[in-house]
Design brief:
single chain, about 240 residues, Alpha-Beta Plaits, 2 domains, ten-stranded mixed beta sheet, two-stranded antiparallel sheet, 12 strands
Length: about 240
């Protein structure tokens, strides 16, 4: 049973798909990454019975950059175990102070080179896990029903949660052609989780990369199992 390609047109005022080699001063890829595209589909519909495989990304507008300077809090949210103790009253909650006195707290200004006026067309397939292949037609029908109504589990976003994404389901109607653009992006982030098995997103991060090439405004995304996707080597214990 072959999955059907599901297509969304996605747009937003701002986006930032941070290049991993520029962590502090964020600099966006000119194209949405496969992991960010997957997150848009998951925001609309996801179940443990399957995973999303992004197959193609089309640029409907050429990349335009905008420089943003933002105040950010230096401190980090504590481990889930600590948050659970706060929730159950076993520990007193400790706020993240925006005006702390030491180097680990307080606010700092950071530069972001973000994208503006983003519009793209995303293609993806539902890939059921082996025990749920027979459920594929029902899963696809549920996604199309939710996407057509504009329903989502949470607001999709374009790289950062403060950059909301808007979407509409495409059902084969005439659409805007991709922008005629050729780009060689080098190594691009593919995903930050192991997508080869169920529960991968609950595991520690597992970075994967691939050679990204845009031709005629279209970025073809290889399957996660494809040798073109470079994955971290797991250490045997």
């Amino acid at each position: 049973m072959r999955p059907s390609v599901q297509t969304l047109e996605v747009w937003g005022d701002l986006a930032c798909f941070t290049r991993p080699e520029m962590k502090v001063e964020r600099f966006s890829y000119p194209v949405i990454t496969p992991s960010a595209a997957r997150a848009v589909f998951e925001a609309i519909y996801w179940k443990p019975q399957f995973r999303w495989q992004v197959t193609q990304i089309e640029l409907l507008e050429p990349p335009r950059y905008i420089a943003l300077r933002r105040n950010e809090v230096k401190g980090k949210v504590p481990a889930p175990r600590t948050i659970e103790q706060w929730r159950t009253g076993k520990q007193e909650p400790q706020p993240l102070w925006a005006d702390g006195d030491d180097e680990a707290t307080g606010r700092t200004q950071r530069q972001t080179m973000a994208l503006k006026d983003v519009r793209c067309r995303l293609h993806a397939e539902i890939r059921p896990w082996p025990d749920h292949v027979a459920e594929l037609p029902a899963l696809e029908a549920q996604f199309r029903r939710r996407a057509a109504r504009g329903q989502c589990i949470y607001q999709p976003y374009l790289g950062c949660r403060e950059f909301p994404a808007f979407f509409r389901l495409l059902n084969g109607e005439p659409t805007q052609p991709p922008t005629p653009l050729d780009l060689d992006l080098g190594l691009m982030l593919y995903d930050v989780f192991d997508l080869s098995r169920p529960g991968g997103s609950a595991d520690p991060p597992s970075i994967s990369l691939f050679q990204a090439t845009v031709r005629g405004g279209i970025l073809t995304v290889p399957d996660y199992a494809d040798p073109a996707v470079l994955k971290a080597v797991k250490e045997e214990r």
